[in-house]
UniProtKB/TrEMBL annotation:
Organism lineage: Bacteria, Bacillati, Bacillota, Clostridia, Eubacteriales
Keyword DNA-binding in record: yes
Name the UniProt record assigns to this protein: Transcriptional regulator
Pfam families: HTH_3
CDD domains linked: HTH_XRE
Domain HTH cro/C1-type: 7-67
UniProt KW keywords: DNA-binding
GO cellular component: cytosol
Gene Ontology MF terms in the entry: DNA binding; DNA-binding transcription factor activity
DNA-binding as UniProt keyword: yes
Amino acid sequence: MKLGDKLKAIRKANGMSLQKLSDTTAEMSESRISVSFLSDIENYRSNPSIDNLKIIAKALNTPVSYFVDDSENSLFGGAIEDTEFVPVVELLKDFKNWSIEDKRELLHYLEAKKVLRDNK
């Protein structure tokens, strides 16, 4: 997946419009990345500088490596493009604030679900 597609996918997974992303970049840095420039990136008309890519990644709470990794399995194993995954991303946004017990419970659930899928 190319940078523009990745930007659009993660932006939509975060439930952000181009305007909201632009506003968030202004909150995160001293410079705003304009809606038109973000649109140009998503539509392959422009490429961001490394500094701008860092600002965009920070605004999306996403590692810069997601945008530059050529691997199809970079973030969430490609699941980010799946629109049914959007609610999961929303629920995980504050994962770092979860208690260790809640994190372990989620891990155990996901491991059990994988075992069930693998044994079908």
